[in-house]
From TrEMBL:
Molecular functions per Gene Ontology: translation elongation factor activity
Protein name, as recorded: Elongation factor 1-alpha
Superkingdom of this protein's organism: Bacteria
Keywords from the UniProt entry: Elongation factor, Membrane, Protein biosynthesis, Transmembrane, Transmembrane helix
Tagged with keyword Transmembrane helix: yes
Transmembrane segments: 20-40, 154-176, 183-202, 208-232
Amino acid sequence: MKENSWLNLPSLSMPVKALFTGYIFVVGLGLMMAGAQIMLTHGMADGKFGLSVDDIVYSYYGNRDGSKLESKLNGSMKEHATPEERLTMIKWARNGAEKTEWQTTIKPIVDAKCAMCHAHIPTIPNITKFDELEKVAAVDHGADYTSLTRVSHIHLFGISFIFFFVGLIFSMAVGFNRITKAIIIFIPFAFLILDIASWWLTKMNPNFAYFVIIGGFGYSLASAIMLFTSLYQMWIMPLRGQSSTENTWTEKV
């Protein structure tokens, strides 16, 4: 059975091209923002900018030589407190997070530097309360299973919708045989499953951290290929085809 020869990206009508292009631009911007968010959160888990295997291990397996509080103070939260304040809180956590020092030494720092976010944003721990900060000051075992479950189902549902529409647009591309096109469309879904599964595996064994990076890189690369190919075939290829007698792009309403 042959594919529809008229239903292809170069010959789409101008309104449909505008619709697809707007979606591609917004999705592309969203992917860049997601990358920036990863760099500013997971990418700072080891206290250094840039995503590394250590960042992945600290985020999911944890830094079991220290606390999550220490990891944050040396990582993504480093700029929100002075070196002296960070050292005071880290020493307090290492010494067992005693409640006797909480009211006089730790709470003033937390109220001044942390409360503006942690006391008002419901999705992050309210460390202005001793019971909550005590949990964060305990040995860092990485992401807990409740948060992994929540984030996993959000990513699986949300990102799969993005890949579905990106793949649907790319399915109208020309110049690819069916098998190649099908593989390119399927790759992001496969790497998304690998990425999410690797979170859980890394939680149990830090050696799986490499697969998190491979999964994220794989679906990002495949998505980029589909997005740029779709834009090229909608807007540049028809202009080149106008000067060729072999390729005549006829717009369909």
